[in-house]
User: What shape does this take?
Amino acid sequence: MLTRVIALSIADGDAEKAEEIIKWASKGQGAEVEKKPRDATSSFIKRYLTPYAPYDKEKIERFIGRVIVKTPENIDFQVVKNTVSNMPYSDFLNTVYWRGVSLFIKRRDGFKCASCGSTEKIEVHHKTYENHGDEIHNLADLTTLCEKCHRDEHSAKEEPKEEQNNPPVTTQGVRRVPKVGSALSMAAIINKNNDRPPRRPSIRAGWGRMIEGYSRQEKFHSLLSKSKLDIEDVAGKRIVTFFVDKYMIKQWIEDKYLREMECALKEATRDQNIELRVKSEQTREEFMRQRRK
Assistant: This one.
């Protein structure tokens, strides 16, 4: 159609009009149509905030490169933050999002504790939880600590602050304590009980909550549910050991899950003074003999 219009313009002797049409057509074909970036928030949440997905090193590295190093503009991070805030913390620890953020922070800090310089049993610590769910925009709010320093940091925050400049207590104008059985005495007892700090869940209760986080992985959840649990206090630390049948399963858990399970158990029990271990009924020597056959 455009070719016909140009031909008719030339036939009518209007060469200038034909030239204008040709310029307009060439400019239109070469122009690029601006496209708005597609909103990728839902796919981001599905890809990086699905808990207990198989551990994928390549996916974690891609997350670091695409999300942390170069923050995408087509993602609503307020929606991401709201999604994280509604997740159980044990689930959050087992997402590609947190694995990528924690690995980036450890690399930034040289894989050593920012407090004592230790390189053993290092963990990533939130200085505050105000930016929980939006860590990639607030990396300064995260630091690397060893297990001991991490435990001490949480213990210091949990200790109640001593009240300062308390006014002197006087007995003038103070009513006597009501007799036992009166309505006033019962109200005082209820208020006193409400002021008590909540009790920490037991290790076994925390273990039950922790393994529920693996309910989507039926075989692994069944394995943990049947595991024998042993708890002992050693040098002021609570050692929690669970047992599996085969040596290979023990190695697999140590390589892939043990550290995140320990973090989830600490969170479930609100006790940072826990060390999680796994042992197998089968010894390494028995496994090697069986392998040679």
About this structure: Residues 203-292 form a domain with the GMP Synthetase; Chain A, domain 3 fold (CATH 3.30.300.180). Confidence is low (pLDDT under 50) at residues 160-165, 169-187. The radius of gyration is 31 Å. Strands lie at 122-126, 142-146, 229-234, 237-244, 274-280.
